[in-house]
Amino acid sequence: SVAPFFPNMAALSAWFWNERFWLPHNVTWADLADPEPGVEYPKAGHVLSALPLALGIFAVRLLFERFVARPCAYLLRIQAEITRRAQPNAILEKVFTSITKYPDARRLDGLSKQLDWDVRRIQRWFRHRRNQDKPSTLTKFCESMWRFTFYLYIFTYGIRFLWQSPWLWDTRQCWYNYPYQALSPGLYYYYVTELAFYWSLMFSQFTDIKRKDFLIMFIHHLATISLISFSYVNNMLRVGTLVMCVHDSSDFLLEAAKLANYAKYQRLCDSLFALFGAVFMGTRLIIYPLWVLNTTMFESWEIIGPYPSWWLFNILLLVLQVLHVIWSYLIMRIAFKAMVRGKVSKDDRSDIESSSEEETDTPPPASRSAPPAKGENGTNGHLAAGAWQQD
């Protein structure tokens, strides 16, 4: 019946919002519900305002890619590749969607007998079918230009906002008088805009061409949204802005390197990637642990003391640091390979396959399908385990 459902929901809500988990000792939700006149504290309902804003950002992205990014691509002589569509065939389509996109020699022989096609014709069909699902260089350029624009904007805004904030210069200010810290309009805008952007990335995954890192990036975006929302509800916004700014500092450089790669400016691409690697490792292996983790783990312990959600927040930040180490290793590995080859790796994930593949009847090497790690970003990291451009 419907009647018992609502008491159960009330009990579930009371359990989820347990004050002893979310708040420091001797603080209750009632203490935060009635602030002084002109003062507002973060509320859980505020994060819902990110959803309509995310739809707006998604709409702006579509307009930006069509009327700004695409003309820029044409100026750089980047055109959409013309790919030959695979001939409709129910049997091969079932194999492609349900079994494998790279049939081995044994399966090719079986299909050849079943369809009365020669093996090369079947290989050609699978190559054309794979290419149908891959975004063109034009599509990737437009996507990267949108991300570059947003990351540069939000990083610039974050630096400008934090420059006027006392906790940038003294991180202990993140914890004085916690959790009775007022929510300013600038702080609210910074947080909700960042949260809305990652919601928009979630939406766009279902409308963009589906890529092989779909699940990895979906989990990354979900983790980012959860971490941002968690810190907002917990009123850890001050230290949260430091975390976001540290991660935003390198993302626009990665997208800039991708843009140079798609436009075939190899030297510029290599230089931007080297700069990205230096900023990434400097911010995430030095600044993040010595500045951000130091204040969340040690300064906060001295000022407010630990409590359950404090432990969870710090565990998540430590997991993030582990990922930083892994991604930094991947960057150094890519940089080493680049020095050996003389240039940064090309984009493995989405390139149109060449006709030379017709001559092979074996799947591509394992490195082609190595899944990306994103971490980002993240918070924000958009690195791949196989090739740096794989986002």
From TrEMBL:
Claim: Nucleus is one of the keywords in the record: yes
Localization in the cell: Endoplasmic reticulum membrane; Nucleus
Pfam families: Homeodomain, TRAM_LAG1_CLN8
TM annotation in the entry: 44-64, 188-207, 214-233, 272-291, 311-336
An example Gene Ontology CC term for this record: nucleus
Residues in TLC domain copies: 129-340
Domain Homeobox: 92-136
Membrane topology: Multi-pass membrane protein
Coarse class of the protein's main subcellular location: endoplasmic reticulum
Keywords: DNA-binding, Endoplasmic reticulum, Homeobox, Lipid biosynthesis, Lipid metabolism, Membrane, Nucleus, Transferase, Transmembrane, Transmembrane helix
Protein name: Ceramide synthase 5
Source lineage: Eukaryota, Metazoa, Chordata, Craniata, Vertebrata
